[in-house]
Amino acid sequence: MIQGIGVDIIEIQRIQSSIEKFGDTFLRKIFTDAEIAYCRSRKNPTQHFAARFAAKEAVSKALATGWSGEFEWKNVEVMNELSGKPSVILHGITAQALEKSTVYLSLSHSDASVVAFAVIEVAESK
Question: What CATH number belongs to 2-122?
């Protein structure tokens, strides 16, 4: 059963501006060490940071808790499988809240924007 869906679109320049203005303080507040390392290893790091930011936003919308809820940026970690498919690794209270759920994620981008779509599916009890 679908528990929630969320979508987010962000301009890559917005993330670039935040990185330029706040540097590592911004990056370490939003992203895990593994996400930072991955993005920095890519040809266009800002695009990858923007994709992960949008993915975290999409998951938060799918959770429907809002920012006043139990959502924390680093509790949603976006990684790529060897095939390139994005996946979500949950940590902390977010992992506990979704322990019987699966999070599906799709990312896409243009030169200027990134869009993320998340679906949370909860296993049905039998």
Answer: 3.90.470.20
In the residue annotation, 109 being an active-site residue is answered as yes
Taking the CB of residue 48, how many other CB atoms lie within 10 A of it?
Answer: 25
Report residue 66's pLDDT band, with 50, 70 and 90 as the boundaries.
Answer: low
Catalytic residue (one of 29, 61, 85, 100)? 61
Buried b (16+ CB within 10 A) or exposed e, 79-101: eeeeeeebebebeeebeebbeeb
Catalytic option among 21, 48, 74, 109: 109
What are 16-25's pLDDT values in tens digits? 999 999 999 9
Tell me whether residue 61 is one of the annotated catalytic residues: yes
